[in-house]
Design goal:
There is one protein chain. The protein is of the alpha+beta class. It has two domains: 21-88, no CATH class; 145-536, Rossmann fold. The chain has 13 helices and 20 strands. Helix 6 (193-205) packs parallel to helix 13. It is globular, with a radius of gyration of 23 Å. It starts with 36 loop residues before the first strand and ends with a helix.
Length: 537
C-alpha cells in the first residue's frame, strides 16, 4: 500500500500544538530516530531537551538586567509556555487583570467558498465516473441513508430534551429554536463536519440563523461556512489554550479580543453563495463591560446605527442586540476610541422555527482546557447561549499527548488516564450545571493513521482514549458518538487518506471527509429522533 502524498497547499497549517502530530507515547527509552530519551517517564529526546534548555536560557537572559530590556520578546502577562500563570519576572507588581495576549494569525476573510470542498470529488479520483468506480472508504449504510453506527445512549433518554425541542420545531410551533453548541478542537475549527451538520439540520427543520461565531479567526485554519465574516488583523487575543487572561474571561468561544485604538473592526452578515444562511432577524454582540471600557460604532448595512459603550462599574459579560427585518443584512462593529475594548463574538438568529449550530473549535485544545475559564463566567455565557444540545468533541490532541496526561495542578500525572477521566468529568459537570435543561453528547476523536504497517496503520492511543471517554459518558448519562468506529475502526484513516478524504497529516478530514462524517453523525442522531417520535405517538 502506498504512503499518503505530501501535504497539499490547502493543508499547510492547522495551528495544532506540536504533540498533536507526534507519535504515540509508549514510554520507550529511545526516540524514533534512535536518540536517547531523558527518562522513560519523560519521553523527550535528550538532544531536544538540551536545545530547549538553551533556547529558554536565551529567552530569559534579557530579563536579568534592565539594560537588556530592548531584547525582551515576551508579551507582559504571558509565560514562556504561553500560560500567563507564572509569577511576574520583574520586581514590579503586575497590574490587576493584565491580559496575556497574542496577535491574530492574519485578517479574517470571507470563507464561504470553502463550502465547495464538502461536495468536491476526493482528490485521488479523476472525475465522477472514476469516483463511482473507485472504492471509497465509506460504509455501505451511508450510501443507503442509514447511520453506520447508532448513538451510544446508556440511559436510553440522553437526548430526549433535544429531541423534544426538534419535535416542537418540526411542528412549526412559534418561537421554537433548537440551539446546538458544539465545542471541539481543530476538527471543529475547520467547519466541515459541523458545517455539514448545520446544513442537514436546517434543511429538514428550518434555518433559524447561523448561530455564534468569534470576532475574528484566532487560530490558523479556523473558518465557518454559510456566513459572511471579516475582520481587521490587529486585534489581540487571549485564549483558553493560552496566552491566558488573568481574569479567565473568554466568552462563549473561549477567545477574548482586545483593541486599544480606533478603527479595529469586524463584521458578520448573511451568506450569498449557497442556499443556507441567507437571512437574519437579530444580531447579538457578546462583549465585556468594564471600568474605562471603550466605545464601538454599530454599522448596519453600511449605515451607522449608533454607538455602544463598554464602560461600566465592574467587569461583566453583556449582550447587545440589534434587531432587523428578517432578510439579508450585515453588521459591522468598529472601535472609536483608544480605550480598551474587549469583545468575544456575535450570534445571528431568526424569528422562525428552526435550528442553529454554533461551531466553537479551539485549535490545539484538550477537553480540560474548557476549565481554564472563570467558572462563573463560563456558566453565564454557556447558559446565555440557551443550548438544547451541548456537544464536546475532543481527543485528537490528547491522543498526541499519549499517556502524558496532567493532573489538576498542571503537573505531569502519576495516574494519567485516571486524571484524564477526572478532568473530563469536571468539565461535563460544569456543562450540566450551566445548562440543566439541555441534552449532552460526547463525540470521540476520528481515527488517526500511523505509517506503522505492523499496527495496521492505526494509533493505539485513539482507542484507549475512546474507552475512557465512554466510561465517563456512561457515568454521567451522556450520549456518545464513536467517530472512529463510524469511519471503519482502527486504521480506517489510512484508507481515507488514500482516497482523498483525509489530509496527509493523517488526522484531519478533508472537505469530502467532513461531508461524510457530518452525514454519519446526523443520521445517527435522526435515527434516535425517529424512535423518540414513535414513542411519543
Amino acid at each position: 500500500m502506498t504512503s499518503p502524498s505530501e501535504p497539499r497547499p490547502d493543508e499547510s497549517a492547522f495551528g495544532e500544538l506540536v504533540s498533536t502530530v507526534a507519535k504515540d507515547d509508549r514510554a520507550e527509552t529511545r526516540a524514533e530516530d534512535g536518540s536517547k530519551l531523558v527518562h522513560p517517564k519523560f519521553p523527550v529526546a535528550r538532544k531536544v531537551a538540551v536545545a530547549g534548555g538553551l533556547l529558554g536560557a536565551l529567552l530569559l537572559l534579557p530579563y536579568a538586567h534592565q539594560d537588556l530590556t530592548r531584547f525582551r520578546v515576551l508579551t507582559p502577562g504571558v509565560s514562556i509556555l504561553g500560560g500567563g500563570e507564572d509569577e511576574p519576572q520583574s520586581n514590579v507588581p503586575a497590574p490587576v487583570d493584565t491580559v496575556g495576549e497574542a496577535a491574530l494569525p492574519g485578517p479574517t476573510d470571507d470563507q464561504q467558498a470553502r463550502a465547495a470542498e464538502l461536495d468536491a470529488v476526493p482528490n485521488e479520483s479523476k472525475g465522477p465516473i472514476a469516483q463511482a468506480n473507485q472504492k471509497l472508504p465509506i460504509p455501505p449504510a451511508l450510501a443507503e441513508g442509514k447511520p453506520p453506527i447508532p448513538i451510544d445512549d446508556y440511559t436510553g433518554h440522553a437526548l430526549d430534551r433535544f429531541y423534544d425541542k426538534l419535535l416542537a420545531v418540526e411542528q412549526k410551533q412559534p418561537g421554537q429554536i433548537a440551539r446546538i453548541v458544539y465545542y471541539g478542537d481543530s476538527i471543529v475549527a475547520s467547519d466541515f463536519i459541523t458545517g455539514k451538520l448545520r446544513r442537514l439540520y436546517q434543511t429538514r427543520f428550518g434555518d433559524a440563523g447561523h448561530g455564534y461565531a468569534l470576532v475574528a479567526n484566532a487560530f490558523p485554519g479556523w473558518f465557518h461556512i454559510d456566513v459572511s465574516r471579516k475582520s481587521s488583523d490587529q486585534w489581540k487575543t487571549s485564549r483558553c489554550i493560552g496566552p491566558y487572561a488573568e481574569d479567565g474571561l473568554y466568552g462563549l468561544g473561549c477567545v477574548s479580543f482586545v483593541a486599544r485604538r480606533p478603527d479595529e473592526w469586524f463584521s458578520m452578515g448573511t451568506a450569498d453563495k449557497d442556499e443556507w444562511g441567507r437571512s437574519v432577524s437579530r444580531f447579538e454582540l457578546e462583549y465585556l463591560e468594564q471600568p474605562g471600557g471603550g466605545e464601538v460604532a454599530l454599522i448596519l448595512d453600511e449605515q451607522k446605527q449608533g454607538t455602544l459603550s463598554t464602560d461600566g462599574p465592574e467587569k461583566k459579560v453583556k449582550w447587545h442586540t440589534v434587531t432587523v427585518p428578517d432578510g439579508p443584512h450585515k453588521l459591522e462593529v468598529r472601535t472609536t476610541t483608544d480605550k480598551e475594548t474587549r469583545l468575544f463574538g456575535m450570534r445571528m438568529e431568526r424569528d422562525v422555527p428552526g435550528v442553529t449550530l454554533s461551531a466553537l473549535g479551539i485549535t490545539g485544545a484538550r477537553g480540560r482546557f474548557l476549565d481554564k475559564q472563570d467558572d462563573t463566567h463560563w456558566a453565564e455565557v454557556l447558559g446565555g447561549a440557551k443550548p438544547d444540545l451541548v456537544v464536546l468533541a475532543f481527543g485528537t490532541n490528547e491522543v498526541g499527548d499519549g499517556r502524558m496526561a496532567f493532573d489538576e495542578k498542571g503537573q505531569l500525572s502519576k495516574d494519567p488516564m485516571g486524571d484524564y477521566e477526572r478532568s473530563l468529568d469536571a468539565v461535563m459537570a460544569q456543562v450540566e450545571k450551566a445548562c440543566p435543561n439541555a441534552s449532552y453528547m460526547l463525540v470521540g476523536p476520528p481515527d488517526m493513521a500511523s505509517k506503522n504497517e505492523n499496527e495496521g496503520h492505526a494509533k493505539p492511543m485513539v482507542g484507549i482514549y475512546i474507552s475512557h471517554q465512554m466510561t465517563v459518558a456512561k457515568k454521567r448519562g451522556w450520549a456518545y458518538w464513536n467517530q472512529q468506529k463510524a469511519m471503519g475502526g482502527p486504521g480506517s484513516m489510512w484508507s481515507w487518506v488514500q482516497a482523498g478524504m483525509g489530509n496527509s497529516d493523517m488526522i484531519h478530514p478533508t472537505g469530502s471527509g467532513g461531508n461524510a462524517l457530518g452525514q454519519m453523525q446526523y443520521l445517527a442522531v435522526m435515527d434516535g429522533y425517529e424512535k423518540h417520535k414513535a414513542e411519543k405517538r
